[in-house]
Amino acid sequence: MSNYPKTRREFLKQAAMFVAGATLASCAPATTTQAPPQGEATQPAAAQPSGAGDEEIQPGVLRRECLILEDPTGTATPADDFNRWRPGTRTYSTGLQQLALDALWYIDPDAGVNGVWDNAVAAEKPIYNEDFTTMTVKLRQGLYWSDGVEFTAEDLYYTVDVQMKNDGWSYTGQFRGNIESMEMPDKYTVVFHLKAPNSRFHSFFTVRWGACFMMPKHVFEKQEDPLAYKFNPPVSLGAYTLKDFDPNGNWFLWQRRDDWQRTSLGLLGEPKVKYAMYIAPGPSDKRVIAQMEHKLDVIHDITPEGRITLAQKSPSSIGWFKSFPWAHPDPTLPAVIYNNEKPGLDKREVRWALTLAIDIVRVAMASYKGAATISAIHVPPTGMYPKYYFEPLEDWLKNFTIKVGGQDYKPFDPDACNRIAEEARKTLGDLVPTDPAEIRKSLGAGWWKYDLKAAEQLMLDAGMKRGSDGKWKLPDGSDWKVPMMSMNQSNPTMNRCASMVAECWSEFGVDTMLDARDNPWDIMSLGEYSANLAWTIETWGGHPDLFFFLSSWHSKFYQPSGTRASGSNSMRWKNPELDRIIESIQKLDFDDPKGIELGQEFIKLAAQEMPITPLMAYNVFTVCDTTYFTGYPTAEDPYTDPVPNWANTKYMFIKIKPKA
Amino acid sequence: MRKFLLHYLLPRIAQYLTVIFIGITVTFIIPRLSPTDPVEAQVSMILSSGSAVDPEAIEHMRQALTEMYGLSGSPLEQYIAFWGRLLRGDLGPSLSTFPTPVTRLIGQALPWTLGLMLTAVILSWIIGNVLGALASYYPKSKLIYAIDLMSQAVRPIPYYVVALVLLVVFAYLIPIFPFSGAYPVGTRPSLTPSFVLIYLKHSALPALTLILVGFGGWFIGMKSLTSNIISEDYVVYAETTGIKERKILTQYVMRNAMLPQITGLGLSLGTVFSGALIMEVVFQYPGMGMLTLQAIFRNDYSLIMGIAIYSIIGVATSVFLMDLIYPLFDPRVRYQ
Q: CA A546, A550, A555 angle in degrees (round to 5)?
């Protein structure tokens, strides 16, 4: 008689049946436990492109009525968390900050719809008292949240109050550090009393990509824990509401509000796009293919090779510039950032020598296939900055001198952009413009000379020595290594850029190598590096005020290597003249024209000291498909930035219209 | 039975728990040795967003986030608190998507991974073993030889190359399969027949690539195992007694070669919890691989720990179960 209740075969059969059942159950894909947030229930829809845009993206949503844009954040998880005011939320550029949220003011990185400044939910510009210790905000009347509640001063007051009084919000530190008290004299006015004079307090509420957006008090005040609240479905102050989204975070569908006239965007015109969908289309190649198949209207960014493919094979695809270099130059300045505390790099002559040892033509070709907008000075050559800074300083740049071997030396090379165009023409032919004015506008207004002889002399001036192996040594004869840190293949253009800079330096005798990292930012902040290809300068783009990045460059915020930098002074640059300029800017009104003069003083100082070597604008290959929609922003009609994750791109929706 | 419990089962359970304890402890330590930390990653994200930030506020931001994420105590205090939570079944909140619970993020990604990976692993195991046995038993068959050749040719090619080639051929040049994702844009996942069809269509190509690359290993293993067995006396004897070839192949040859393959299957099934990162990237398939990558990039301690715990328990449990059920597959194995 058997010791077991079942035979081995019986047990195996039953176990197999159980496992098969369990496996089938586990294979079932996840389902959402929540109904679509707003709008009707939805069913899967198989879409086949017909060419006329009659296919449905979802039931009732025709392709030709739905603008499809790339969200560069990729898959946004968790997809149902729309609390934009808490650090860590991943849904910010799924259309949330572009279409549903709104802020007091916007500064356009380009020319703007009606100028660069827009009073969005504010009725007028910020009103400061004489010593900048109070800021009064007057709000527009007649703006409504998508649930029908009016937007008032209560919302602004709550937005600031809840973040100031509780830890963990994105603006807790900013508000707590600046605000003494607030008052609400009437339904549409809020007065901020500041702890110390601050002429740039409004910056926290002014959108440049993002800002502190308005919170609906009537929604958040009902939550037991507003910080943990997911804000799902988001109640919108913008012209669109969330219609549906993928619980796995791959797409978010927005629908124009019926009452769009009661939003700040509606005051500028009718949003003609009925639906907008932000998707995570995958790597660069997939985005290219998706646009060639007219399944993706606005690509955020692709590789230069991908852009060239679209230029050659997709006649309906357009970029910021009509032809080469196509890309939109973002108001961000990729640069070689030196740790100004490292031996050797602490000498101005050495930093200048390294600058003159860079062949910008090769760097532009390696990084962007030539489609780079170069900048010799320490602001990005984008938006309105050519007018504010590049054109006024052109003559100064041509005559600017540094001491090389005790002699005056003019390092500026106004012809660099033409040489880049010439080099690019070898592979791209007629796609590259020949008109010098066009080249200057799109590729930049010159750079520093590639002059190894001058660089050599500067190194000798700094006391550096050539070793028997041809490598540069420190004045005491010890080895001098300058590893070039950069982002890895997660950012191929910057990676290739760094690689070429390292190659140039290596040819000059610098002991260097490419040190590509997943996250070089943290290492840079700690100062545990020698050189890094990244950026520490970001500007408003449309507005000349440089306090945006200079605020943290004052020596009072200086942190030595080993301690995390406060703000963007990761290069550890300290200079009394710089402090004077920053303090002077801070005392001025935001729009005071003297701000531009002080900005120019900063540029002249930075050129002398060369704490970082500016390279080029952060060019973004945003590509728009004109198959179903027209009216995208371009260099000819620069009414806003087309890069779709910027909150400023809300203005696109009143200009873009269905082609039909 | 008592002997089995005392001399085999209890020591194996103790060993199983020890493996899990060590694995989890190591996973707790490793991310903390990384030069980056999740608070800084979060602060960097806020700073790199391009909005105005007051430098004086940054330090406050760091302190508040450190406190909120439970990273303010010493590593030992954090370790003790972690085990306290874990024993209550709480993996804590994800630090990069605070305060979303880690279990929720994993729960969202895991079904997609299990659905595809389990199917692919089991199918490649079955196909590889059956063909491997056939290749050994019928060495002169041209068809089997061709399959053998193909498996040898595909096996050394890196997975991402195979995946990309198949993707370009079957989704772009000859668009039989969808280009990416587990379902089209605009579709919400649901347990409806129409969605299941859509899902199967989308997951077919990723599964095919995994099977194509995966079955070769099983094929070679089974072929070499069975090639020894077919020359055993009992197989020769069975042939001389006129027993049907099919029966000899399945019950005399394959069955005796199965034990190491079953062990291998157990280990493979255990590893599916960590997903197939390259497949997920190439096909933009949602799953544990991408979640793991995001957790590592953002140095999200809690999420890394959560995923690792699932993986460690998955592998340890598979091996433990395989040890226990060997006698069911091979009656010659006994615990005495």
A: 155
Residue B334 covered by a domain: no
Closest residue on chain A to B298 (Cα): A519
In a domain, residue B69? The reply is no
Which residues of chain A register pLDDT less than 70?
1-51
CATH number at residue B254: 1.10.3720.10
Instruction: Please tell me if residue B192 touches chain A, with a CB cutoff of 8 Å.
Output: yes
The CA distance from B265 to the nearest CA of chain A, in Å, is: 14
Min Cα distance B189 → chain A (Å) is 6
The count of structural domains within chain B is 1
Residue B182 with chain A: CB contacts under 8 Å: 29, 248
Mean pLDDT to the nearest integer, B11-36? 86
**d(C-alpha B331, C-alpha A643), whole Å:** 67
Q: What is the pLDDT of residue A35?
A: 33
- pLDDT tens digits, B40-96: 777 766 665 555 566 667 777 777 777 777 777 788 888 888 888 888 888 888 888
Domain segments of chain A: what residues? 105-220, 330-619
Pairing of strands A531-534, A484-487: parallel
Q: What is the pLDDT of residue B124?
A: 92
Enumerate residues 120 to 179 of chain A having a beta carbon within 8 A of any beta carbon in chain B. 167-168, 170-174, 176-178
Is B231 domain-assigned? yes
Residues 196-235 in A contacting B (C-alpha not used; CB under 8 Å) = 200, 203-204, 206-211, 227-228
Residues of A whose CB is below 8 A from B108: 30, 77-78, 247-248
Decide: A338 and A345 in contact? Cβ < 8 Å.
Answer: yes
Q: What is the pLDDT of residues B180-233, one digit of tens each?
A: 889 999 998 988 999 999 999 999 999 999 998 888 889 989 998 998 888 889
Size of interface A-B (CB pairs under 8 A): 220
Instruction: Tell whether A11 is within 8 A of chain B (Cβ).
Output: yes
Spell out which residues of chain B touch residue A206, defining contact as CB-CB under 8 Å. Answer: 52
pLDDT band per the 50, 70, 90 thresholds, residue B278:
confident
Residue of A nearest to B185 (CA): A251
Q: Return the HEC string of A244-311.
A: EECCCCCEEEEEECCCHHHCCCCCCCCCCCCEEEEECCCCHHHHHHHHHCCCCCEECCCCHHHHHHHH
Residue-wise pLDDT tens digits, A497-511: 999 999 999 999 999
Give the per-residue pLDDT at A24. 45
Q: Alpha carbon of A647 to those of A171, A208, A636, B38, B300: distances in Å?
A: 17, 7, 21, 26, 27
Residues in chain B: 336
Cis preceding linkage at A78, omega within 30: yes
Q: What is the pLDDT of residue A297?
A: 97
pLDDT at B256 > cutoff 90: no
Cβ–Cβ < 8 Å for A433, A421: yes
Question: Does position B334 have pLDDT exceeding 90, yes or no?
Answer: no
For residue B282, give its domain range.
112-295
Question: Which of residues 30 through 49 in chain A touch B, CB cutoff 8 A?
Answer: 30-32, 36, 42-47
Residue B259 vs residue A214, higher pLDDT: A214
The reported pLDDT for the residue numbered B299 is: 76
What CATH architecture does domain A330-619 belong to?
Roll (3.10)
B168 touches chain A (CB under 8 A): no
pLDDT band at B257 (very low <50, low <70, confident <90, very high): confident
What number does CATH give the domain A105-220? 3.90.76.10
For residue A541, give the chain B residue with the closest CA.
B50
